[in-house]
Specification:
The chain has 357 residues and is mainly alpha-helical. The chain folds into 2 domains: 197 residues, no CATH class; 116 residues, no CATH class. The chain is 70% helix and 2% strand. The protein is built from 12 helices and 4 strands. The chain has a two-stranded antiparallel sheet. Helix 4 runs antiparallel to helix 5, helix 4 crosses helix 7 and helix 6 crosses helix 11. The N terminus is likely disordered.
């Protein structure tokens, strides 16, 4: 291109006192953006099952990788997290819709795919197979596990994704065809698991239990689609607490919910236990709304996520002592990852403040 033409093009792009260089290679920039979105999608698809299954000890490393458990868990957890994030963005919604869809995800997995909500002999139940069981439903286990999946399987992975890949925040990661493919894989995975668990185990839930699950999922889906975008958004512009206080909040939430969800004393009526679990969720949400702030809060979000996972990291070596090989390494790996995440988030906050006029 002749020098005079280049000069005219630069002049045409001169705006507000600054010269803007013409983007001569727009395709390269588009390719870069697509690549980052692809990395972000895989990041979320892997992070969800690694947190909810591997770090929790439900699927130790050998079972997850060598046992080929990832073939079922990645489409289920990763597909679920991707679908929740994509739907909330395409609807123009916020965290309220993510939470509601996260609860729907928990019901699909535990109520329909593996039926642990109803099976009194489910391997992880312990005393919860009798405590709180009413009308063929393990109610305390159902409420606790729905909360766990809402937070650990869906919401926190999406939160961490936006902190690790901030340029993809509020942007869909999947094209329409990719979204359809992920949805089909997710539905197929759920169907295969549902048939497999019914075939391999003695307990078969009554049809009314499945119908109740589908009805609950539908109602949560409708609620998520209608929920106002700012229903659970921050009520103040800036955080009023330090990031480390949110680490404490996250740790307290996970510790208290696990204590009441998995180890409530039998002397406590199950209905009271469920009410306590819901109060813990409500109190935590109110604290986040009124203390987190709307801007300059990346480090605060990272510390909150770290606090939620800290208890699982502490427990990981004890899983190793119980025979789950590799759990100590998983705990260390997540601890290092969360330290890097917190540093990255703090750097983002400092950079944002430096650009404030």
């Amino acid at each position: 291109m002749p020098p005079i033409s280049l000069a005219l093009l630069h002049l045409a792009w001169y705006r507000r006192g600054r010269a803007h260089t013409l983007d001569i290679y727009p395709a390269d920039r588009h390719t870069s953006a697509v690549t980052e979105k692809g990395k972000a999608a895989w990041f979320l698809a892997l992070l969800s099952p690694l947190m909810a299954e591997v770090l929790s000890g439900s699927s130790p490393p050998l079972e997850f990788f060598a046992g080929l458990g990832f073939l079922f868990l990645i489409p289920m957890y990763g597909g679920g997290a991707l679908l929740v994030r994509e739907l909330s963005l395409r609807w123009g919604k916020g965290w309220a819709s993510v939470l509601l869809l996260g609860a729907a995800y928990g019901i699909v997995e535990e109520g329909i795919a593996v039926k642990s909500f109803f099976d009194p002999n489910w391997v992880d139940l312990g005393d919860l197979g009798a405590y709180g069981r009413f009308l063929e439903v393990n109610w305390v286990w159902t409420v606790w596990l729905t909360i766990f999946h809402t937070v650990v399987s869906i919401t926190v992975p999406i939160l961490i994704l936006e902190l690790w890949y901030p340029r993809t925040k509020r942007q869909p990661l999947l094209t329409q065809s990719q979204f359809t493919l992920v949805g089909l894989l997710y539905v197929a995975d759920i169907a295969i698991c549902a048939v497999m668990f019914v075939s391999l185990q003695e307990y078969v839930p009554p049809p009314v239990q499945y119908a109740a699950c589908f009805a609950a999922v539908y109602l949560l889906y409708v609620a998520a689609r209608r929920a106002p975008k700012d229903l659970v958004s921050a009520r103040h512009r800036s955080p009023s607490w330090s990031p480390w206080r949110f680490l404490t909040v996250g740790f307290a939430f996970m510790s208290l919910s696990m204590v009441y969800g998995m180890g409530a004393p039998e002397s406590l009526p199950p209905a009271v236990t469920i009410m306590v679990l819901l109060l813990i969720c409500g109190a935590t949400l109110l604290l986040l709304q009124h203390r987190m702030g709307a801007v300059g809060n990346s480090a605060h979000k990272a510390c909150f996520a770290a606090g939620l996972l800290l208890l699982l990291i502490i427990i990981a070596p004890f899983h190793e002592l119980a025979g789950m090989l590799g759990m100590s390494a998983v705990g260390v790996a997540f601890a290092v990852f969360l330290i890097l995440l917190t540093r990255k988030a703090r750097a983002a906050d400092l950079s944002a403040r430096a650009h404030v006029p």
